[in-house]
TrEMBL record:
One of its GO terms (molecular function) is glycerophosphodiester phosphodiesterase activity. This is glycerophosphodiester phosphodiesterase. It comes from Dillenia turbinata. Belongs to the glycerophosphoryl diester phosphodiesterase family. Residues 1-21 form the signal peptide.
Length: 752
């Protein structure tokens, strides 16, 4: 009954399986030139409990049509083979609560292991045990569904997998307990089609080879860590890797951790090894393991799991014959949609790709290198969040607070920290407290918005690049033929005019005129603000594309409100959550925001798209591409604002767009609210009040105040002194405002 319930709820979880777009005519560099296999470890174990009916079903629903389901086989006391990820049952089930007195300690490869083991239980006893999510970084909200432990026959008959892979991890352990994995395999193969059998035990695999030689079942030798000891030969797996000729005598392939192919040191890729070519030369297929989306990837991949898969299957030099993943949707889209894309492929105009502080996911925010990276990565529009210095120079910086992106708090300028509630809560060192030359003298810091999750951005660029003025930003963009526009953001204009005597609007317009943007059509100029008063003031003076940003969370907007917006803006930016609201990272539905705005011919751009998996709802499977696709093809946004432009540009070029009813499931938008339906009632998060409707009162603002000269405060700190000394004790040379590439400066990306 519980299995039937799981099937029913998962039927509504995602779209029905469409015909796969698989079948590229390009030559794959696999052993036989065939398409690499997608192997779903325990099903879609990145979301649901490993080896549960839900995990297996979701893998079938969201993967390529020939996906292979992986089962880690354990033997029960009565010799029944079950699919369970670990030898110790306590790691992924509630068995310790049901059988508290049956904990045991057994030697496993010579090491004592304490826990609950299948050899001490019959299948009948295990029928009372429920599967649970064993990885703490993943949601446990589905554990209350009481997913049953499945036998090998259950998975085969209920799921009818296109491919079935049995992994035998601990044959020697079962032999010690009087159980025969060999006999089990021979018996089960009479009623179950087994496509692959893998094991890290060399003697076991070679012993069963004669019995499977005349069948279609492929035997795969699994390599563990290079320094780990293979229990039957007492050799390290690294030494066995040097003897592929022998492995070929009983196996048709090998399964290796991905680091065997692309070694990594401190999360930086090292040169790839020759293990793929070596295996292929021996006539062995080679499969790569350990692909997960929800752990730190190499910095070379910019937290994009599709990019990681691509480096194993379509790098121009080799391709593995398959990948073992907890998130099979990712290799599915990588293999079928992103591989073998020609350079001359026509790229659709939607979505418009707008950078966020440049490519600030890979480079320090708003630096010259961040903007150049955004351009080379395929951004259509690069952005400048304009801040003002004390001496009236507009420059690009993600925040008006210098503490967030520089070492200002660690210098003599720390005494300038103050609180201005009208702008920010808490103390800050504001950009208008320092001159441009002083700001250039500060040291940069790369942004790490998800450091609390121990996810850090590329430290190799921690001190790279230079902060640039608005004038330099415009000059940089003007010479880039690939750009279609620049986006200039203006905030705090009223405060700067009234309190600091700084006219940021006029400074921006003056910079645009001086750069010749007022007389040219490309790149176009887009000016963004959360303040309608700013956009109204600009509209009276210049003819640029004005973009209104709704910084509140909303679920809809009144007709009159949208009509008001149209009087001063031609496009709207909204937060992602205003489109797909969530509750504890589960999507609860879709709002009317996008269709309502587009009904009034207002393009809608959504922000902020990051690659780190913690920035995404569970529904997007820890895959930035799935999230982008859902907002573009599902919600219908016209553009994305992202700190990783390369991922969005790559998405826009994939082969699975525009296929209509032939769109494969892995490139179909998620169904918001479907995962929430699978959470049992007792585990549902408390309901939250819906977001408000955007009203005219929230949009209409008084005109900007006139610019008034700032009155110096009594005993004001003299900020025109020399910059702080450098680390070697020598004072920095104050640069002329015109010379803006003399010092390093980083800004951080604001965590939304």
């Amino acid at each position: 009954m519980r299995n039937l319930r799981s099937l029913v709820v998962l039927f509504v979880l995602h779209l029905a399986v469409f015909a796969s777009a698989q079948g590229s005519t390009s030559k794959w560099q696999t052993l036989n030139g065939s398409v690499p296999l997608v192997i779903a470890r325990g099903g879609f174990s990145g979301l649901f409990p490993d080896s549960s009916s839900a995990a297996y079903n979701l893998a079938l629903l969201t993967s390529v049509s020939d996906v292979v389901l992986w089962c880690d086989v354990q033997l029960t006391k009565d010799s029944v083979g079950i699919c369970f990820p670990n030898l110790n049952l306590d790691n992924a089930s509630d068995i310790s609560n049901l059988y508290k007195n049956k904990e045991a300690t057994y030697p496993v490869n010579g090491v004592p292991v304490q826990g609950w083991f299948s050899v001490d239980f019959t299948l009948q006893e295990l029928s009372m045990v429920s599967l649970m999510q064993s990885i703490y970084s993943r949601t446990s909200q589905f554990d209350g569904n009481l997913f049953s432990i499945l036998t090998v026959q259950d998975v085969f008959t209920q799921m009818q997998p296109p491919g079935f892979w049995l992994n035998i991890q601990h044959n020697a352990f079962y032999v010690q307990h009087g159980l025969s994995m060999r006999n089990f395999l021979l018996n089960v193969s009479k009623s179950v089609i087994i496509d692959h059998i893998s094991s890290p035990e060399l003697n076991f695999l070679s012993s069963i080879a004669p019995r499977f030689k005349a069948t279609k079942t492929k035997l795969i030798f699994r390599f563990l860590g290079q320094d780990d000891i293979e229990p039957t030969t007492n050799q390290t797996y690294n030494s066995l890797l040097q003897n592929l000729t022998y492995i070929k005598t009983f196996a048709s392939g090998i399964l290796v951790p991905k680091t065997y192919i692309w070694p990594s040191e401190n999360l930086f890729l090292q040169p790839c090894t020759s293990v793929v070519q070596d295996a292929h030369k021996q006539g062995l297929e080679i499969f790569a393991a350990d692909f997960v989306n929800d752990s730190p990837l190499s910095y070379n991949y910019s937290y994009d799991p599709v990019a990681e898969i691509m480096s194993f299957i379509d790098n121009g030099n080799f391709s593995v014959d398959g990948v073992l993943s907890d998130f099979p949707i990712t290799p599915s889209e990588a293999i079928d949609c992103f591989s073998h894309i020609g350079k001359n492929r026509t790229v659709p105009a939607t979505p418009l790709i707008i950078s966020y502080d440049g490519a600030s996911g890979d480079r320090p925010s708003c630096t010259d290198v961040a903007y150049m990276k955004a351009i080379s990565d395929g951004a259509d529009v690069i952005d400048c969040n304009v801040q003002m210095t004390k001496d009236g120079i507009p420059f690009c910086l993600g925040s008006i607070n210098l503490i967030t992106g520089t070492n200002a708090a660690q210098t003599n300028y720390s005494k300038l920290a103050t609180s201005i509630p009208e702008i920010l809560s808490g103390n800050a060192i504001f950009s208008f407290s320092l001159t441009w030359a002083q700001i250039q003298g500060l040291s940069p810091q790369i942004s790490n918005p998800y450091s609390e999750y121990r996810l850090y951005r590329n430290p190799a660029y921690r001190t790279a690049g230079n902060l640039i003025s608005l004038t330099e930003f415009l000059a940089l963009a003007k010479n880039q033929s690939s750009l279609s526009g620049v986006l200039i953001k203006i905030e705090n204009a009223a405060y700067l005019a009234e309190k600091k005597g700084l006219d940021v609007v006029e400074e921006v317009l003056s910079s645009l005129r001086e750069a010749g943007y007022d007389t040219q059509k490309t790149p176009k100029v887009m000016i963004e603000s959360t303040n309608s008063s700013v956009l109204v003031a600009i509209k009276e003076k210049a003819n640029y594309e004005l973009v209104y940003e709704v910084d509140e969370y909303i679920r809809d907007a009144l007709n009159a409100t949208i009509e008001d917006i149209k009087t001063f803006a031609s496009a709207v930016i909204v937060r992602k959550t205003s489109i797909y609201p969530d509750n504890q990272a589960f999507l609860i539905g879709v709002t009317n925001v996008v269709p309502r705005l587009k009904a009034f011919n207002l393009p809608v751009y959504a922000r902020l798209f990051s690659n780190e998996f913690v920035s995404q709802a569970w529904d997007f499977f820890s895959d930035a591409t799935v999230e982008i696709n859902s907002f573009v093809t599902g919600a219908g946004v016209d553009g994305v604002i992202t700190d990783f432009p390369r991922t969005s540009a790559q998405y826009r070029r994939n082969k699975c767009l525009g296929l209509g009813n032939k769109t494969p499931p892995y490139m179909s938008p998620v169904q918001p609210g479907s995962l929430m339906q699978v959470i049992p009632a007792q585990s549902l998060p408390p309901a939250e009040a819906p977001f408000p409707v955007l009203t005219e009162a929230e949009v209409n603002e008084a005109p900007l105040p006139a610019v008034e000269a700032e009155t110096p405060a009594p005993n004001a700190v003299n900020t025109s002194t020399s910059p702080p000394p450098t680390k070697n004790g020598q004072p920095k040379i104050g640069a002329c405002v015109i010379l803006s590439h003399m010092a390093l400066f980083f800004v951080t990306l604001l965590l939304l």
